[in-house]
């Protein structure tokens, strides 16, 4: 079992706190993640900078992945496509690893990051990605026609909501990661390959 370690290099623009100085609930959550992953993902080290934001961020993250009409592969595909458009190094690498793991496809994440339109995905999933990227780049251009397209390919109203929620959350996540200059753990680069 790996011991929780908050890497000083998890982000370059703000100080990473000491694990022992964190509130007990944050220590517990970071310990759980460390045990599951085998290392402490740097996003936990970075968000520990502000405990109230850590709690809110990860509570919403957990709701998005635990209470969703999407499968986990679809969630991760959205994250990587959006992060690719936003040029978020941390999320491209970390969620690229998760995309490889959940899809079982070692090439899919790279396709999504480089140009999601060239990814080898179904028409249904391409419609999902088109809406996620449109919401990312031009939210004022999202119309009823986008929801109708999602319905036509088989997404329920709940799934459509979840597509938007995951997209919106990871746009926030990308911007915080980029602002703080969060660095992905080396382990993410090779996972699922």
From TrEMBL:
Pfam families: CMD. Keywords: Oxidoreductase, Peroxidase. Gene3D superfamilies: AhpD-like. Residues 51-101 form the Carboxymuconolactone decarboxylase-like domain. The keyword Mitochondrion does not apply. InterPro entries: AhpD-like, AhpD_core, CMD-like, Uncharacterised_peroxidase-rel. SUPFAM superfamilies: AhpD-like. One of its GO terms (molecular function) is peroxidase activity. It comes from the Archaea. This is Peroxidase-related enzyme. The lineage of its organism: Archaea, Methanobacteriati, Methanobacteriota, Stenosarchaea group, Halobacteria.
